[in-house]
Write a sequence for this structure.
C-alpha cells in the first residue's frame, strides 16, 4: 500500500509516493540518494542509521517513513553549515575518531542529538544523582553513546572528539 | 513484510473504534519493537493505527501528589522530567538503564509496557513457540533459556518480560489507564502483565482493542529514596539478566518502616517481591536482615538447568541495593 507525502530532509522538501513498509533509512538511501546514513543491523542495535527527527536522535531503520512526514529530518549530509563542517565533524577528523568510517555518520548525528539532550540537563544511567544536573565527562559520554557501535573500535577517538566539542 | 494500511486517528475514541470488531489492525507507538517484529514476520498487522499523536504526551501532577504520565510520553522525556527524577528516582533510573538514547527518544510509555519477550525462539518464525503459535511447543524449556524465567513459569512458556520501566512501575504500584471498546477503566500494576499458565499467547490482561492512555504513579513520599539496579551481560545497551527496583524507608531506630521491591527479567511479569517486603518490614536495616529477606523471596524460585545462576544473582543484587539505600538513609 502506498501513501503520497512530503518529506522535509536537510531543509529540502521531497514529494514522494512511499510504500507504507518503507523505513526512513531505505527512503533516504534508495530514493533520495542520501547514502550517508548506513544500514548496519536493521534492528535498532548498532546506531549506524541514526538521524535527527525534529532535532532528536532516532534510529531510521525502525522509523517508518509514513510516520515522519510532518517533522523536519536532518541527516549527516545536513550537519555541515554555510561556514563549513560541523564542530563535531572537525573534531572527529582531528581526533582520528574513525577508521573505516562506516559508523561515523551515525556517530555524528547521535553525538549532535546527545549534546542537545545534555544541554537540556537530561541525566543518564551513570549520573550519580539522577535528580542533579549531569557533568559531561568521559564516563557520561560513553554511556550516552552506547547506542552506537564501532566495529573498528575507534571509541577513544570518538569520546575525545565529543568531549572536546562538549567543553 | 506483509503490506499494511497506515492510519492516523483523530482522537482516542476513533483509534479504539478502528481496532474494534476483530480486525487485524494494531496500534503503533514508537515502533521500536513492533516494526522489528513485523520485519521478522512475528507480527503481521493489516493496518497500523498510529497512536503517537492521540495518546497524551504530557506528564501532569495529580491532586494527591502523584503523576499522570501520558501513554505517548517518550521514554527519554519521562526519565528527564524533574518531578520523576526527584520523587521517583527508581523510575528515572530504570528507564535510563534500558535500550539506547535513540530508542528512548522513540519508545512510548504505552509501547514499553506492551513490548514482547526477547526469547529467541519467539522472534524466529522458523521455530515452534507457544507464545507466537499456540500449541506448537516450547523449545526454550529444553533449549536456550539462560536468560529466561526463574519464577512463575509454566510447562507452556518460560519467557520473561523484558521491560525495565515496568519493574519500577510495579514496585511503585502504578495504575494503568485503559480505553477499550467498552469504555475507560484502570488496571493496577502489578496486575497488567499475567503469568503464562496454559495460554502464553497473552502477555497481559488487556483485551483486543484496549488502548493504554496513561500510567498513574501514586503519591509515595518514601520513593524519593529508591533505586534501580540492573545486572547484564555488558555494561550498557543490553537487556537485564536480573534487575531490581527498590524503595526503602527507615525509622529513627534504623528499622525498616516501609519498602517496595520488584525484580525484572525473572518472570513473565515484573515480579513484585512480596515475601521479601514482608520479611523486611520492622526489621533492623542490616545486611544480615536484608539477606534474610532476599532468602525469603528466592526460596520460591524454580530455576531451569541453564539459569540457576539467576537465583543467587537476584539475591545478591537485592541485598546490595538495600544496603546502598540504607547507607544513604
Ligand atoms: C536494540 C534494542 C534494545 C533494547 N533494550 C531495552 C532494554 O534494555 N530495556 C527495555 O526495557 N527495553 C529495551 N528495548 C525495548 C524498547 O524499550 C521497546 O521496544 C519500547 O519501549 C517499545 O515502545 P514503542 O513505543 O516503540 O512500542 P511499539 O513498538 O510501537 O509497540 C509495542 C507494542 O505495544 C502496542 N502499543 C503501543 N502503544 C500502545 C498503546 N498506547 N496502547 C496499547 N497498545 C500499544 C503495539 O501494538 C505493540 O504491540 C530495546 C529495544 C531495542 C530495539
Ligand atoms: S519460552 Fe515462551 S516465548 Fe520462548 S519459546 Fe517457549 S513459549 Fe515461546
Ligand atoms: S541499522 Fe539501524 S540501528 Fe543498526
Ligand atoms: S570506524 Fe569502522 S565501524 Fe566505526
Amino acid at each position: 500500500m502506498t501513501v503520497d507525502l512530503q518529506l522535509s530532509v536537510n531543509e529540502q522538501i521531497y514529494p514522494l509516493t512511499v510504500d507504507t513498509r518503507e523505513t526512513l533509512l531505505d527512503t533516504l538511501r534508495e530514493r533520495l540518494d542520501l547514502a550517508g546514513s548506513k544500514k548496519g543491523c536493521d534492528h535498532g542495535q548498532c546506531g549506524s542509521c541514526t538521524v535527527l527527527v525534529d532535532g532528536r536522535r532516532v534510529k531510521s531503520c525502525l522509523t517508518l517513513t509514513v510516520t515522519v512526514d510532518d517533522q523536519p529530518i536532518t541527516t549527516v549530509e545536513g550537519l555541515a553549515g554555510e561556514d563549513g563542517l560541523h564542530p563535531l565533524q572537525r573534531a572527529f577528523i582531528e581526533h582520528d575518531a574513525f577508521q573505516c568510517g562506516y559508523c561515523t555518520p551515525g556517530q555524528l548525528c547521535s553525538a549532535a542529538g546527545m549534546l542537545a539532550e545534555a544541554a537540556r540537563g537530561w541525566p543518564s544511567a551513570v549520573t550519580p544523582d539522577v535528580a542533579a544536573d549531569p557533568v559531561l565527562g568521559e564516563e557520561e559520554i560513553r554511556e550516552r553513546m552506547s547506542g552506537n557501535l564501532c566495529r573498528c573500535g575507534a571509541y577513544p577517538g570518538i569520546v575525545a572528539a565529543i568531549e572536546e566539542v562538549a567543553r | 513484510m506483509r503490506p499494511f494500511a497506515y492510519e492516523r486517528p483523530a482522537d482516542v475514541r476513533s483509534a479504539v473504534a478502528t481496532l474494534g470488531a476483530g480486525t487485524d489492525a494494531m496500534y503503533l507507538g514508537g515502533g521500536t519493537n513492533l516494526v522489528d517484529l513485523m520485519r521478522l514476520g512475528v507480527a503481521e498487522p493489516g493496518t497500523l493505527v498510529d497512536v503517537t499523536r492521540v495518546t497524551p504526551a504530557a506528564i501532569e501532577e495529580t491532586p494527591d501528589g502523584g503523576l499522570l504520565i501520558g501513554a505517548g510520553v517518550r521514554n527519554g522525556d519521562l526519565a528527564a522530567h524533574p518531578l520523576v527524577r526527584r520523587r521517583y528516582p527508581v523510575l528515572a533510573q530504570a528507564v535510563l538503564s534500558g535500550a539506547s538514547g535513540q530508542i528512548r527518544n522513540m519508545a512510548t510509555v504505552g509501547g514499553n509496557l506492551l513490548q514482547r519477550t526477547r526469547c529467541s525462539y519467539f522472534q524466529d518464525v522458523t521455530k515452534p513457540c507457544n507464545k507466537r503459535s499456540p500449541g506448537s511447543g516450547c523449545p526454550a524449556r529444553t533449549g536456550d533459556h539462560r536468560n529466561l524465567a526463574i519464577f512463575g513459569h509454566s510447562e507452556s512458556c518460560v519467557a520473561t518480560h523484558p521491560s525495565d520501566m515496568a519493574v519500577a512501575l510495579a514496585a511503585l504500584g502504578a495504575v494503568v489507564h485503559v480505553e477499550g471498546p467498552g469504555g475507560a477503566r484502570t488496571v493496577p500494576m502489578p496486575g497488567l502483565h499475567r503469568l503464562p499458565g496454559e495460554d502464553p499467547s497473552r502477555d497481559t490482561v488487556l483485551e483486543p482493542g484496549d488502548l493504554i492512555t496513561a500510567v498513574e504513579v501514586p503519591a509515595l513520599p518514601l520513593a524519593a529514596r529508591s533505586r534501580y539496579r540492573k545486572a547484564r551481560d555488558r555494561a550498557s545497551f543490553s537487556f537485564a539478566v536480573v534487575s531490581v527496583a527498590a524503595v526503602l524507608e527507615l525509622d529513627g531506630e534504623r528499622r525498616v518502616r516501609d519498602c517496595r521491591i520488584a525484580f525484572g527479567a525473572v518472570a513473565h511479569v515484573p515480579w513484585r517481591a512480596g515475601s521479601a517486603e514482608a520479611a523486611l518490614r520492622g526489621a533492623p536495616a542490616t545486611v544480615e536482615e536484608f539477606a534474610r529477606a532476599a532468602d525469603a523471596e528466592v526460596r520460591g524460585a524454580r530455576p531451569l538447568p541453564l539459569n540457576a545462576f539467576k537465583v543467587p544473582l537476584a539475591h545478591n543484587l537485592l541485598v546490595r541495593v538495600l544496603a546502598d539505600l540504607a547507607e544513604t538513609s
